[in-house]
Design a protein that fits this description.
Its main location: membrane. It is found in: Membrane. This is Cytochrome C biogenesis protein. With 611 residues, the protein is of the alpha+beta class. It is elongated.
Length: 611
């Protein structure tokens, strides 16, 4: 981001005299590059090119009192002053927008704005749930509608935050990228005049020639993957450019993820389908039980494929504290690509979807579909089907409705419709205790409880109905001898005869299972994954790679012995720089060993002294 970054270095100032071993630490401190010079009484400018910033983060400037300078007299001068003032404010606003502080604020607001999208029902997800919420919260509904809280991700305010964050990232990355390219094309800066002023420093004397020492230092630094060059009487080197590469990669990855999110929201499609064993599904809009898509999605973009549910297999823990916990949960399907594709077998499991040309088939849930046969008063079959029922607990106790729409006539020969509210348990328990419940999710002792109604189901009114609920407003119940709703609990193979010879309904011994699938196309998923991996990689690089510079100076001393100086300067808290410099110094010292200490001169007695 274009935020001012404080560049500090944790250094160990190491001084080695004649005959000592390079790398002996004597002073440790934390300082900025300029402050490192001021600490020793040196002006920041004394570091020369060594004091250049090791980061591409630009300096942030305060808002001046007037951007355009003094105002010239006359209307032309006033106009020019106004233009300069406006341009100044625009530049200041742009610097603020592309700063790290503002980007973090926008990112926080984006996360904050996503909260109501998760807590409040959204039109793009479930319009029926939105309608129910509005009916239950009439006071808040107008407020939420004005704030677009039922369409958070497509609202004006969420889009504004999203676009500003996008612009902020681009406005930050582009200039920093060009600046970094310029740094890569440049050369490491020359050594400062006095290396002793740098945070990490060491020196020794050697009998090797200065030119030989500099050549050895140049070869050593290049071997350690430093960018190095000879600069006068010193060798200048620099390392750690991947830190800025990681920083830029992280910010570019954020843009990639924002683009992936936008693509996924605009071009996505997602729908659900409940399929009974033996039935199939073709990926067309009319086949879905429910369907949602992005604003730019085209129905023609649906991937052409079809599948048939051959068998659903579910096994459960039979005993112990985890009794009833699913162990196997899979759907065996036969699918084909396109209209004339070859049939292929596959098994769909939870979190193991079937992928067909970018469209994924997820297994969501399962339940039971008892097979029932309905006959009229003459014994003719008017309805036979496997009726899927919805689970209401972990033991798959299920409810639903068996609806007979056509074919049934009462004893007077008039057409009527029948409705049978159903309650199914795979393992019957509670008999004789006034209740009916399931004690295990597998088909151990199945039972089906039915009630009977006749009349009009209301399916011809044009108003959508829930297929798992019965609207009894235009229906009358069949009554038993007590005048109550006629009902009966059936075991597989048993038949419930309706009162007055109105017919019967049989619970067949065959019980099928159904599986609920989600078919989704998310074109931005791959891009988002790539962006996330790149962001983590860039973040690791920017955190653990340190940018640093090392200089080696070799000059001949007054006594003819070569004096070698080594110093380092790092960006941020380069805790490993003292150790790295000590290691480099030890390696170079092996090529240019420390010269022995000069022998002390013999004392000459003064004239007149006693012998």
């Amino acid at each position: 981001m274009s935020e001012t970054e404080t560049e500090t270095t944790t250094g160990t100032e190491t001084t080695t005299g004649t005959g000592t071993t390079p790398g002996t630490a004597t002073d440790t401190g934390t300082t900025t590059e300029a402050a490192g010079a001021e600490r020793a009484g040196q002006e920041p400018g004394d570091l020369g090119g060594a004091g250049d910033r090791l980061s591409t983060a630009p300096q942030e400037r305060a808002v001046p009192g007037s951007f355009g300078g003094p105002r010239a007299p006359g209307p032309v001068g006033a106009l020019a002053w106004g233009v300069r003032e406006t341009a100044g404010w625009i530049r200041w606003f742009w610097r603020q927008l592309t700063s790290m502080r503002v980007a973090l604020i926008l990112l926080f607001l984006l996360s904050l704005g996503a909260i109501p999208g998760s807590l409040i029902p959204q039109n793009s997800v479930d319009e029926m749930k939105v309608g129910t919420w509005k009916d239950n919260n009439e006071f808040w509904t107008p407020v939420f509608e004005k704030l677009q809280l039922f369409d958070v991700y497509s609202s004006v305010w969420f889009s504004a935050i999203y676009i500003l964050l996008f612009v902020s990232l681009i406005g930050c990355i582009v200039p920093r990228t060009w600046q970094f390219i310029g740094q890569l094309r440049g050369r490491p800066p020359g050594a400062p005049k006095r290396l002793t002023r740098l945070p990490v420093y060491t020196t020794w004397r050697t009998e090797a020639e200065p030119e030989a020492v500099r050549e050895a230092a140049l070869a050593l630094l290049r071997k350690r993957r430093f960018r190095a060059r000879a600069a006068g009487d010193a060798v200048a080197s620099e390392k750690g450019y991947l830190r800025e590469v990681g920083n830029l990669l992280f910010h570019v990855s954020l843009i990639v993820m924002l683009v992936a999110f936008a693509v996924g929201q605009l071009f996505k499609s997602e729908g659900g389908k409940l399929v009974v064993e033996g039935d199939g599904f073709a990926n067309t809009l009319t086949q879905y039980d429910d369907f949602r898509s992005g604003s730019l999605f085209d129905v023609d973009d649906l991937v052409p494929f079809s599948f048939t549910l051959d068998q659903f297999t579910g096994t459960y823990e039979p005993s112990g504290p985890q009794k009833g916990t699913p162990r196997t949960f899979e759907a065996a399907v036969t699918y084909a690509k396109g209209a004339e594709g070859k049939d292929r077998k596959a098994v769909v499991r939870v979190n193991e979807p079937l992928e067909v040309d970018g469209s994924k088939l997820y297994l969501l849930a399962h339940g039971y579909a008892p097979v029932v046969t309905v006959r009229d008063g003459k014994g003719q079959v008017v309805h036979r089907a496997a009726v899927p029922l919805l689970p209401i607990d972990d033991n798959v106790s299920s409810t639903g409705v068996i609806k007979v729409l056509d074919g049934y006539r009462n004893k007077d020969g008039e057409k009527e419709q029948l409705g049978f509210p159903a309650f199914f348990v795979p393992t019957y328990a509670g008999k004789g205790h006034g209740q009916m419940f399931s004690q295990f999710p597998a088909l151990v002792f199945p039972a089906l409880n039915l009630s009977a109604y006749r009349g009009s189901l209301g399916v011809d009114s044009g108003v959508p109905q829930n297929v798992y609920q019965l609207d009894t407003r235009k229906m009358k119940p069949f009554e038993d001898a007590k005048g109550e709703v006629f009902k009966q609990t059936l075991l597989p193979g048993e038949t419930m005869k309706l009162p007055g010879g109105a017919g019967s309904i049989t619970f067949e011994k065959e019980i099928k299972e159904w599986a609920s699938f989600q078919i989704s196309q998310q074109p931005g998923n791959g891009l988002a994954l790539a962006g996330a991996v790149a962001a983590i990689t860039g973040l690791v690089g920017s955190l653990f790679i340190q940018r640093r510079r090392v200089w080696v100076r070799a000059v001949r001393g007054e006594d003819g012995v070569t004096v070698v100086e080594m110093a380092g300067l790092g960006r941020s808290e380069s805790a490993g720089l003292p150790e790295e410099l000590a290691d480099l110094a030890a390696s170079l010292n092996a090529e240019a060993p420390t010269a022995p200490d000069p022998e002390p001169a013999e004392a000459v007695p003064a004239e007149g002294a006693e012998k």
